[in-house]
Structures are given as structure tokens and as C-alpha cells.
Amino acid sequence: MTERPVLVVLFDGVQSLDVTGPVEVFSGAGYAAGDPAAYPLHTASLDGKPVRTTSGLTLTPDGALADAPRPHTLLVPGGEGADHPDPGVIDWLRENAPRAERLFSVCTGALLLAEAGLLDGRRATTHWAACDGFARAYPRVTVDPDPIFIRDGGVATSAGVTAGIDLALALVEEDHGRDIALTVARHLVVFLRRPGNQAQFSAQLSAQTARREPLREVQRWIAEHPDGDLSVPALAARARLSPRHFARAFRAETGVTPGRYTERVRLEHARRLLEETADGVEEISRAAGYGTPEAMRRAFVRALGIPAAEYRLRFRPPAR
Fold this sequence. Notes:
Distance between the termini: 32 Å
CATH class of the largest domain: Alpha Beta
Number of helices: 14
Number of strands: 11
Radius of gyration: 22 Å
Shape: globular
């Protein structure tokens, strides 16, 4: 079996789950594939000394970055230490990271890659709370705050903490197939696997709550009636506003158009039914307001890159 060495960069202020989550995935994948050495793991700090994580845990690396073996996959975690990185770490990344076949950051580890110039001209993501500052600080990077991870050639960036597990599972599936990745996901009691372009937040969290009560009531009604008439005229009548005034006010107060908000709510409702019930696709398409399975299939492909039927196969837990 092909070995794919993984090197994890450690530094003071690293987020422990950014390290241990993906490491557990790669380690578990080796055992699931019948070859514990499928992903030889090596950790390294700049000087080889132990580092203290943001939670207070101390991690002892295998050695110094200068002595680390050349990796197939280079993992750069995030954490508070990424906000003010050691220049030595940045210099090492700038010189050595391009030699890895895959470059993989978790959370604000993307800031280290950007500081080293490794994300120039690429799409990238990071934890939602850091995206605005990320975009301002690194204008050569196209920052997308929505997806949980983004693949751009051999460079992959992921959102906060658990998104690193999703990305690691995606890489394992790419290397060894869905069955091995599914075995690891089941062992870790996580779904295999959230698509990279799945939003970091639910529809209700990703949009702001309207200030005015009529618009807040419309938001609640949409969430409770995804199969209802959610056209702008119908929603405007519920808010006792003209369609034009309603559309303007809704976008101004929530940050999204009524149509975009409705799309997110319906998609989220359909996903939940596919994951948690045994209802048929046709029944779910009606309950989520799509009307037909084909309309729901198109919506899933457009938003998540996979049809609804495949989404159910991937993300509904196996029957016990």
C-alpha cells in the first residue's frame, strides 16, 4: 500500500483539536485499510520543544521542523498562536511547504499559509470569525466564509475545528475509497461526510434576525412552513408590506434576499429529513417545498454538489 507521510506543524497557542482531529482520522484510516503505516505521522515544532495549546495542554513533538522528513501531506493547524506567528515558522513554510504534495490547513492555520504567500491567487476559507480580517489582511487570497472546506489544487483549507475532521475524511476517501473513510467516520461517531461546500452555519444562524417584528415573524413562518407559498408577494402580504418594500427591508435587516433565505431553509429542512427519517424522496421533496424529486435533486446539486439520493446514502446513519 502507498505510504502518505503526514507532517503536523506545532507551535505555542495551537488549537489542540485542530491537531488531534485530523490525526485521529489518518491514524484510523491506516488501521481500517489494514496497514497502520499507510499514513506515517510526524509532529514538529520550530525548535523541537514542547508547545502549549490554547486549552493548556502540552504537546511534545517528534522533533524540529528542520529535521522533519519530507511529507506527502503537510497539516497546518490554527489557534491563537496563528494570530501572531513565529517568523521562523513562516519562513519554514515558505521554503518547505511547496514540496508537499498536499497542503492542508485547519481553522486559522490558513493565516499561516497566507502569511507565507502560499494562498496567493487561490480560494480559501477559515473559521467564520476570522474571515473578515483574513480577507482584509490578504487581498491576494479569495476568501469564502461559507464552506466548511475548500480544495484548490493541492491546497486545502478548512473552517473551525471539526471541519478539519471533515476535510481529513475527504482526503482519506480520495486515497482509499468510501468504505475505508466510512469505517473511520463510524469509529469516530461522525457522519461521512459533510460536503466541503456545506455552509458553516444553519440558515437561521447564517442570516441576521430582523429588527422589526413583522419581518421576524416572517422568518419564523418560513422556518415552520418550508412547504408553504414562500414567494415574495405572499411573504410581503404576511408582513403587511408591498412586495418591493418587503424585499428591500428583508435584505437590509437580514443580509440576504427573501429568495436566498427560503432556499437555505428548504435545503436545511430536506437535509434533516433525509438524515433522520425513512421518508421517501418524493415525500421529502413535497415537505421541503420543492414539489418534485427532480426539483430537489437540482437544488442539492447546485448547493452541495451531490443529488439528494446520494446525500442520504452518505449522511444517514446506518440502521442498528
